[in-house]
Amino acid sequence: MASNCELYRKASIGTSLTDALDELVTNGSITPLLAVKVLMQFDKSMNEALQTKIKSKVSFKGHLHTYRFYDNMWTFLLENATFKKDNENLHVDLVKVIACDAKVSGR
């Protein structure tokens, strides 16, 4: 089971990093151990950056299609959701929101 701290590996930046590291390991440029260390540093850096660098607040509402709680992580599927930040509004037909408690996950 993946740690909550590895949540951002599934984002496009995380998958791109993983793909690049896999290629480097495959062609012998780096060791698998170094690739694991890079991913662990990525997890740590993403969590620190999101805690210290992001100051914006966003509110959202929509129709709750599905929700579940598993492994200390909430997953919500919202239909017809509206996100609001300052005077900006964004409407999406379907969005998946994943939330975890930073205190529980050790961040």
Automatic annotation (TrEMBL):
InterPro entries referenced in this protein's UniProt entry, alphabetically: TFIIA_a-hlx (IPR009083), TFIIA_b-brl (IPR009088), TFIIA_gsu (IPR003194), TFIIA_gsu_C (IPR015871), TFIIA_gsu_N (IPR015872)
Domain annotation Transcription initiation factor IIA gamma subunit C-terminal: ranges: 61-102
Protein keywords: Nucleus, Transcription, Transcription regulation
Gene Ontology process terms (BP): transcription initiation at RNA polymerase II promoter
GO cellular component, one term: transcription factor TFIIA complex
Stretches assigned to the Transcription initiation factor IIA gamma subunit N-terminal domain: 5-50
Known role: TFIIA is a component of the transcription machinery of RNA polymerase II and plays an important role in transcriptional activation.
Protein name as catalogued: Transcription initiation factor IIA subunit 2
Source organism (scientific name): Ceratopteris richardii
